[in-house]
Amino acid sequence: MPAVVWLVVLFVVPLVIMLSLSLKTCNPASGACTMTWNWGELPRQVNLYRTEFFTSLEYGAAATIVDLILSFPIAYWIAFYGGRKKNFFLMMLLVPFFVSFVIRTLVWEFILSPSGFFLTFLRHAHLVSANFHVLGTGSAVIAGLAYNYLPFTALPLYVALERIDRRVLEAAYDLYASRREAFMRVILPLSVPGIFAAFLLTFIPAFGDYVNQQILGGTSSTMIGTVIQNTFLVTGDYAAGSALSVVVLVISLIGIWLYSRVLGSRSIEEYL
Amino acid sequence: MSVVSDAATVGGRPHEPVAPATKRPHHWGRIALPAYSWLVIAYLVFPIVVMFVYSFNKSVGGVPQVSFSWNGFTTLWYRTWNDAPGLTSAFWLSIRLALIATAISTVLGTLLAMALVRYRPRQFHGKGVIEQILFVNIAAPEIVMGASLLGLFVTFNIGRGFITLVLAHVMFCIAYVAVTVRARLTGFDRSLEEASYDLGAGPFTTFRRVTLPMIMPGVLAGALMAFALSIDDFVTSNFVSGTSSPFPVLIYASTRVGIPPQVFVFGSVIFAVGIALALSSLAIGRKRI
After folding, report:
1. Total domain count, chain A
2. Residues of B in contact with A14 (CB under 8 A)
3. Average pLDDT of each block of 10 consecutive residues along chain A (272 residues)?
4. B87-118 and B247-257 are packed helices; what angle lies between their axes, rounded to 10 degrees?
5. Which CATH superfamily is domain B87-259 in?
6. What residues of chain B lie within 8 A of the CB of A143, using their CB?
7. Residue A186 within any structural domain of the chain
8. Which helix (H) or strand (E) holds A144?
């Protein structure tokens, strides 16, 4: 099958090459790499960029939690009360995707910029203090990540809530469950697979993202994606970059493995 | 008729229910929840409005760069949309790339999906492994795919350019197409194909006249997804593009030297066209139902 060949040659083989590159020693000037079985490179790189790894985990998790909190009520509302306007509301959730990812992030730079018209307006209206600034901080990065990946959270939640059999809910009410009880003991437990899928589909890309950090963050909030991009494309140290990518891959694979253990890897197709 | 009330007529008793599942939305269900939802929608739309507004912003001192502060209204950037160096050609490169990647990945992904649905693990060795690869491919962070592809091209001394972009884009689109098509293939009635064979049609005619029309909605959904993924891809493209920059890569590179205001013009126009297409397909879809 040509598709399998394509995936093996351009997805599996590169990952194996990445593993082997992380054991090599590369000359950044010429780009030539020789195999030195340098097992020390990986722990050395992890140690070197420990802060960036933790920053990425923290920002990725923060953005995912913000997205879960932001999108659960709206997903619930569309699934249960959307009526015939359901498709319209779902399209509204997807509205950011009609603008290129990089442009979207750039616009947030304009919104959060101290000289942009939005913050200028807020300052004149005395809604924020004169020296308020958010651009270049971790909060700006988290805000950007949360904005960019919100549809990845909202859609799986919607799918899970939509699938809940209304008769189960009705049974809960027939058994004199209050709205609160029905929500806590029927709707919430039944939406757990969706929450898990939403978490996976939001956290992994947010964790590896570097565009938001590069555009909205400052030097104090460097994420691991930025480091990987720079070691590959600026420094040209493929061994170091590969070692770091291997760690990112392993962290993601833990999440992926947990997901397929609990829900089965095929279930992902329902949430895309 | 909404799904909520449909469910009530299916599951509910026709006579007076004590506590129907579809009790009218609670007070917060009637006011707070919709209000909140509209706030979230406003939050999603707000940056797009800002982009649109900034596309009419004058630049400072005649330098063709977007400026953060508001300097007055102008339609100059719409009139000179083609003047930003490299922007228009990068846009067409992205379109070409997305069309080619969509075409290849839709064909390959559809064939893979059909193989995955038709054959049992015993007939199809490695089926489980392929499914795992698809899943990891979808869930893996893009930076790892981009970086590892760069490692591949460097190791084998392959020059980066349009070809490597196509190779990479097809790679990350195949899994999405395969999974999307497969999701719509479940419940596919094989007996219709058998009937076609019984009536003397060959495998090709059967595929063209029976199978393809039936799986077409899934294939189209997969193709749409592949196109959307490809046209907006930044991370992988940034690693494998070399000197031929697609639209997102070019814009990202321009953030260091100053963004040409035409970027927001392109963004606004693409948004308007995309929304118009989506709304009209929604409208057509509703009429059919």
Report:
1. 1
2. 145, 148-149, 151-152
3. 88 91 78 76 86 93 96 92 85 90 92 85 82 84 94 92 88 87 88 90 92 87 90 87 93 89 76 73
4. 140
5. MetI-like (1.10.3720.10)
6. none
7. yes
8. helix A138-163
